[in-house]
Amino acid sequence: MPSRSSCVSTGLASEPHLPETARVNVEIINTGSELMLGRVLNTHQQWLCRRLADLGHVVTRQVAIADNARDIQNAAREALARADLVITTGGLGPTSDDLTRELMAELLGRQLVKNDRIRAHIEERFAKRGWTRPPATDVETLVPEGALFFLNAHGTAPGLAMKIENNAGPTAAGAKWLIMLPGPPRELRPMFDDQIGPWLKREIKSGIFVCRTLRSTGIGESRVQEFVQTDLHPLVQRGLEIGYCARPGAVDVRLTAGGSEAAKLVAEGEAVVARILGASIFGKDDDELEAVVVELFRRKGKTLALAESCTGGEIASRITNVPGASEIFLGGVVSYANSAKEQLLGVSADLWQQHGAVSEAVAQAMAVGARTRLGADFAVAVTGIAGPGGGTPEKPVGTVYIALASAQVVEARRFLNIWDRHTFKQVTATQALEWLRRMVSA
Amino acid sequence: MPSRSSCVSTGLASEPHLPETARVNVEIINTGSELMLGRVLNTHQQWLCRRLADLGHVVTRQVAIADNARDIQNAAREALARADLVITTGGLGPTSDDLTRELMAELLGRQLVKNDRIRAHIEERFAKRGWTRPPATDVETLVPEGALFFLNAHGTAPGLAMKIENNAGPTAAGAKWLIMLPGPPRELRPMFDDQIGPWLKREIKSGIFVCRTLRSTGIGESRVQEFVQTDLHPLVQRGLEIGYCARPGAVDVRLTAGGSEAAKLVAEGEAVVARILGASIFGKDDDELEAVVVELFRRKGKTLALAESCTGGEIASRITNVPGASEIFLGGVVSYANSAKEQLLGVSADLWQQHGAVSEAVAQAMAVGARTRLGADFAVAVTGIAGPGGGTPEKPVGTVYIALASAQVVEARRFLNIWDRHTFKQVTATQALEWLRRMVSA
Fold first, then answer.
1. Architecture (CATH level 2) of domain A22-203
2. What is the ipTM of this complex?
C-alpha cells in the first residue's frame, strides 16, 4: 500500500469540492490506544476510504480515539448525528479492553444476545487446529438485538451491522447504519470485500462518483503536472478534479468527478493523460508494477531470472508477492558479497577487481550469469550503493547500475538514486521492473 | 515502522485510561481530500502521536477531513472546545485548496498580516535555485495577528502557532494553543523536531509519561497475555497500563504509566515480562528482528547465507534493510523453480522428485547448498506453499519447512502458516529470522 507521499490536488475552486452527489455521509471511527500513542500506523483509514470511494461513497470524516469507553461513545454519538453510515474498527475481540460491541449496544439501547451460529463458527475454527474454544471468546458470540452479523473467515469476532431508524438525520434513506468491523487488517479486509461491500451495494444507494488513477513511472511529479495540466484545464472547469501523488519511483495522476457527467469527464481526462504520458503509464487504479510485469511475461510465455546486489531481494520479493509468479519467475540471486557474485553468478574476480563491484561491466555479467544459469528468457541485474556508507566521489551513495540480458542483447544503464536506504531499494526495484515491462512489451 | 495489526490493551478499568498526569489534552486535525479518498496513507498521525508521547503528551483524538472550509472550521471549533493543544496538518500551501491559515484566522477573529521576514525567507529559497518567487506564494507570507511563526527549512510555508486566551476550557495552563503545520512530511517532520518540539517543551508543561514496548516472537497473542497478566495484575492496580499487539509472527507487549511512579512501574512491569517470556523477547520499542539478527551476527563475527523458495526474497530484503548488513550477509538464492534449486544450490532432482520440493529433505539440502556454496557460517532455507494454489491434503497451503545449517548441524522444522500470501511470507520470514537469532545467541 503506498504510504503518504507528496500529494497535491487541483481543480478545487468551490467548496465542498467532494462531489455533492455522494449523498450518503460516511464516517469512520478507528479505536485503539496504540494508535494514539503512535505505536502503530493506522492503515484502516486509507483502505476503507478507498473501498468506500470505489462503491461511490465519500468518507467525510475519520476519527481515531483510544480504547476509552467515554470517548468511544462520544465519538459514535457525534458521528451518528452527522452521518448516514458510521463504520467502527477494532474493539470486538475477547479481551477486557475490547469495548465496542458493548458500548454501541448500550448507546443504542439494545440488549446483547448469544448467537449459536457464531459460537459454532468459532468452535469450528479452533477445532480445525485441534484446540478447544477458549471461554474468553464467549463475548464474541454476542450480537446486539436486531443486528446483522458477518462471520469472520479469518478470525473469531464477527462483524456487526445495526440499523438505526432515522428520526432526525439528514438522509433520505430513512435509516442510518452503524457497522462494526474487527481490528486486524487480515480479518477486516476480506470481511469487507466478501461480505460488507456487496451488502452495502444492495442496501445503501450511493451517488454517482467516478475515480480513476493512472499510474506512471520514469517522470518526476512536477514534470507530470506541468505536462498534463494545460490540456486538462477545460475539463477542470467542467468539474474534473485532478490529484497528483508521488511515490518511490512513480507518480499517480488521479481523476475524480461526481454527478451525471462524471464518467464522461473522467474518461475524457483519462484520454488526455494517456495521450500525453503515453508509455510512461504502466497501469490503472490498484495495478502494481510487479503484477503488470508478471502478467506481461505470462502472456508472452517468457521466463525471468534476477540478480540483485543493492536491492537485496526487494525485486524478488515484489515479484513473488504476485499470485502465480511461479509460472514466470525461475529464481534469483542476492549477491551481496563479491564472493556470491562469483560463486552463484560466475562473475569473475578480475571483472570486479578491475571495474569495481558497482559498475556497468559487473551488472552485465550478473545479468548474463543469472540468465544462463537459470535458463531464463530475460534477466535483470542490479548493483549499486544503497548507503549510508560506501560512496566515493566518482560513485557517490545512490549510484546504481541496472543491466538487462536477453538472448539477443545485454545492456546496462546508470542511475543516481539519492534517497534513504529503504526508499533507495524501492526506487531502484521500480526502475528495474519498469525496464522489464518496456522490454517485454516491445 | 510496523503497520497496524491486532492490538488490544488491558488495565483500563477506569476511564479515562490514558494517564491522568498527561494533563494537556492534545488533538490532531489532518486535512486533505486525498486522505478521504483513500489515495494516500496518513502517516502524520502515527508520527505526531509518537513525537508528542515522547514529549509526555498523549493525543486524545485525531480527526481527518477533506479540504473543505466548513468541515475544517467545524473540526477546529470542536477540537478547541475539548483540547488544550490542537495541531493541524496541511492546507498552508500556495494553491486554491490551501485553506487552513485563512480559516483559522477567521475562526479566531484575527486579521492576516504580511510578514517581511517570511517573504525574505521564501525569496531566498527561490533565489538559491536561480528562480524568482512565484506570486502565488504571497499567501504564505501572511500571519494571523499575534501568531508565532516557524520558518520552513525544507519548503516555503511557515508553521504557525496561535495562542487563545482561555476563558472556558478545562486546562489550568491559562491558555490554549492552535498550531498549524505544513502537510508534506519532509517539511513537517524537521520543523517539528527542530522548532515545534523544543518550543512545546518550554511552553507547555507535560505530565511524566513512560512507555516501553517488549517485542516477542514464537508465542501467540492470547498465550502471551495468559502468561503475563496474572503477575502483572498488582502493577495494573497501581496504574500500569498493558497493551498487546499481534504482528505477523510476533507479539508486542506495551507497558505505559503516568505520574511520579511511572518509571518505576514500567521498570517493574518490564522485569515481570522479561522473567516470564524470557528468550522469546527479541527486542524493545522500535527494534526490528532483522536488525537484532544482523547485530548478533556482527558481534559474534559470523556470516549468513539464505536459500528462499516460498518467501521469495522477503528474508533477504528484510536483512538488507539493515544498514551494515553487508558485513554479515554474503548472499542468498531465491530458488522459485526446482531447476533453480538444482542449478544454484545443488539440490539433486532425485531429492525433490522423491520427497517433493516442499519437504524436510529439500529444505535441508537447500540450506547446505547455500552454506557451502557461499562459504557462510550459517544458512537458513525455506520451502513451502504460499498459496493460493498448490496445496495437497498431505501438504496443505501454508505448509513450510525451514532448515538451518551450520558447520555442526543441519536441522529442519515444519510449520503450518495459514495466512494470505503476503502475511504468509512475513510470518515465515519472522520464523526463520527467529531461529537464526536463537541459534547465534546460543
1. 3-Layer(aba) Sandwich (3.40)
2. 0.75
